[in-house]
Amino acid sequence: MKLRVRALGMAGGVVWGVCLLIATLWLLWFGKGTEMSSLKNLYPGYDITYLGAIVGFIWGFVDGFVSGALIAWLYNKFHRIFYKTEATS
């Protein structure tokens, strides 16, 4: 089975972006806001605010897209190396 690079990238981007958005909003509404402070170092512009939730979604989407696309691309390459054939769709 051949994985579609853009499709897995989009899926990963949406999932990770929404996770960061929901986690940030959850901390704003119910938490103290310090549990995810280390993400400020990873994602420039991110903060535990409403604007930071949007910035987190954008950075999460980019991060998830790149990760998902890389996983699909590597899977297709390794399939070709180990099985000496192209993966089929």
Topology at a glance:
Blueprint: H1 5-30, H2 39-42, H3 50-83
Helix pairs in contact: 1-3
Descriptive report:
The longest helix is centred in the C-terminal third of the chain and has 34 residues, at 50-83. 72% of the residues lie in helices and 0% in strands. The mean pLDDT is 90. The N and C termini lie close together (5 Å). The protein is mainly alpha-helical. The chain has helices at 5-30, 39-42, 50-83. The chain contains three helices and no strands. It has one domain (5-83).
Core attributes:
89 residues, mainly alpha, 0% strand, 3 helices
Radius of gyration: 17 Å
CA-CA gap between termini: 5 Å
Helix and strand composition category: mainly alpha
**Quick one: overall form?**
elongated
**Could you spell the SSE succession in H and E letters?**
HHH
Low-confidence stretches: none
Largest sheet: none
Strand content: under 5%
Q: How many structurally independent domains?
A: 1
Nutshell version of this structure?
The chain has helices at residues 5-30, 39-42, 50-83. The protein has 89 residues and is an all-alpha fold. The chain has one domain (5-83).
